[in-house]
Specification:
The protein is an alpha/beta fold. 30% of the residues lie in helices and 26% in strands. The protein contains 6 helices and 12 strands. The strands form 2 sheets. Strands 6-5-4-7-8-9-10-11-12 form a 9-stranded mixed beta sheet, with helices on one face. Helix 5 packs parallel to helix 6. The protein is elongated.
């Protein structure tokens, strides 16, 4: 009688304990790394360096930041957070050092170009017309002052008007001084939308501008009028430049 042999592979039927142990170990290791990197306080931001700030204190900037995990810190979120809470900041750039758990924040602050006053309150504004800080109630020619008599209420973060309006005010202010030798104590607006502008001079009289017309032509007409027609400004009350090719004065 012929005998038949069956080959038995012991490895095939051995319990897979080693594989289970390896799987559990790698899973725990992975979870441990995830916890260490993203949830453990070990990698919280350790140092914050602020650069470029002059008016805004470094402490104010740091106090408005959450010292979160350096790996979870999102630059865009920090930018939005600081720009919203500190209007004096125009823009900023953030650099992260993961190994040192350090943030470097480069600040560019808003530059003051003038003061706007309305309903008894005054604010500083920048070249874009953005209001960013409280200001004293002042008048004079050392800084551009806009007096809003329309009753409009302003708050920090508001925009006075479009940038073109601010550019026009600055142009008139500069031109009146450089070309005519006049200084403006305040620019007055009486209604919105802004279509007319009153430039009150330190001599006591004012010039009326039509903002829907070419400003350069009106400034030229004013210069011609003062040089050729109104050489004696004693007792002058106003010069009206709003009508094209016409100048009215009293």
């Amino acid at each position: 009688m012929n005998k038949k042999a069956i080959k038995f592979n012991k490895q095939k039927y051995r319990p897979k304990k080693n594989k289970k142990i390896f799987f559990i170990f790698t899973t725990l290791l992975f979870l441990g790394i995830i916890y260490l990197l993203f949830f453990s306080p070990v990698f919280n931001i350790k140092e914050i360096i602020v650069l470029g700030n002059k008016k805004v204190s470094s402490e104010e900037i740091k106090n408005n930041l959450i010292r979160d995990n350096i790996f979870l810190t999102n630059n865009k979120s920090i930018e939005d957070q600081l720009l919203k809470k500190i209007p004096e900041i125009l823009e900023l750039k953030i650099n992260k050092n993961l190994l040192k758990r350090k943030l470097e924040i480069n600040i560019k602050e808003r530059e003051t170009v003038g003061i706007i006053c309305s309903i008894g309150t005054c604010f500083y504004f920048d070249e874009n017309g953005i209001i960013f800080d409280d200001a004293p109630n002042t008048s004079g020619s050392l800084i551009v002052v806009i007096q809003d008599n329309s009753g409009r209420n302003y708050e920090i973060g508001n925009k006075i008007s479009e940038k073109t309006f601010i550019d026009t005010v600055l142009e008139i202010n500069e031109n009146l001084f450089s070309e005519i030798g006049l200084r403006v104590s305040s620019f007055n607006i009486d209604s919105y939308p802004i279509e007319e502008l009153k430039a009150v001079t330190t001599e006591g009289w004012y010039a009326l501008f039509n903002l829907k017309k070419d400003t350069e032509n009106q400034l030229l007409a004013l210069k011609v009028a003062l040089n050729e027609k109104i050489k004696d400004r004693t007792g002058l009350q106003y010069i009206d430049l709003r009508i094209e090719n016409r100048i009215y004065y009293k």
